# Entry
Amino acid sequence: MNSPHHPFAAAIGLVFLAAIGCDRGGPSGPQEPPPVTVTVAQPVTKKIVEWDAYTGRLEPIDFVEVRARVSGYLKSIHFDEGQMVNEGDVLFVIDSRPFEADVRAAQAAMSQAKSQLQQARAGLAEAKAQQLQTDARVTLANTRVQRTRALVDRKAASQEELDQREAEVLQANADAEASRAGISSAEAAIETANAAIEAAGAGIEVAELNLTYSRIESPVTGRISRVFVTEGNLVSGGTTAPTLLTTITSVDPIYCTFDASEQQVLKYIRLAQTGERKSSRDTKNPVYLGLVDESGFPHQGHMDFVDNRFDPETASMRARCIFPNDDQVLFPGMFARIRIPGSASQAAVLIPDSAVGTDQSSQFVYVVVNDKIERRAITLGPIVDGLRVVRDGLTGTESLVIEGLLQARPEMTVTTTKGTVVAVEDGLPDDYEPVPENQWLSPAPDALPPRNEI
# Structure
């Protein structure tokens, strides 16, 4: 239940508090807050290259699936799994006895074809000799018939004798035609024998080639995988489902592939058009690589390839760089951090990200001019040496607020303390040149080992 004296007591309390305030003699209006203290520093100005960051995947230059070219039983294996092999090293041996027999059979077929050739040549010589005989008989028969006709005209020979001589002429001509046919037959036999020799020679080449294929050699230098088929098993050769025996990946040098977005590719195109940066299609721009457990980018290589189209599924373009791998630290399948030049060498203003403010429309910084805060709109670039590149809005001579940004407001009077903006070197150079041709890592096309399956 409320007391009837409650309003009166409240009024007395207010009067009492007012009296106390009057006795203290304080000011009647609000007091000015003390100036805000902010830390300022001058931005870093230095020569830089904007190195674009990508994540790449390491790939071998050569990856060979070692397969059998001929069928047979696997006789022996001549390498240690997971070790390095050199081009030309014998890896597997298939039982060669069937192929040796094929070589001997092909050689025998060659001998037989050569004998047939000799026989056909002898037949040709015989046919030519027979033609000479028949030609002589034709000449003799013609002479006799003419002589007999003269005798018949003088009534010195009978008609029967003339008929006999004319029959001899016909017989001699028939024998001549037969001898010419014999020559044609002998010449055809020679052609047949020559064709048999060609076929036998091809058979020998195939048999010797199959015998060679029974020894499977490494087509490239690289690291070999495990054995997929053990000794004593039947392996299938040929072009239809040949047996996979093992795989080999080259080690040094090694590729790293990455994908660039349309925006990045267009940037590189514009830079090439203005001459600020040469295109990686035309020159070997340097590339730096670091692994997940490495600080910085200790591996240096160069661009090797840029694709000719965008992938319609990812709207990105594939590019490839190449690196030396003498110590064999880089393995195919690894992910890597890579940096490629995204600009020419240029003077730039660098500030820490902590000095950048953001609102809905723009990015800005605060600078102190005559102890007052001024807001400057800026355009930012990538991070270089741990600091953010300012493309527009600062000259590098300003007193930039690097601490106390949240307390400051434009036109506010502040007190300042000196700070320092420190650039942390990331190991990437501040200038670069395309890699000269004598330092290119790409192997010459005529020096490349065969990449087809064996």
About this structure: Confidence is low (pLDDT under 50) at residues 1-23, 444-454. The longest helix spans residues 97-153.
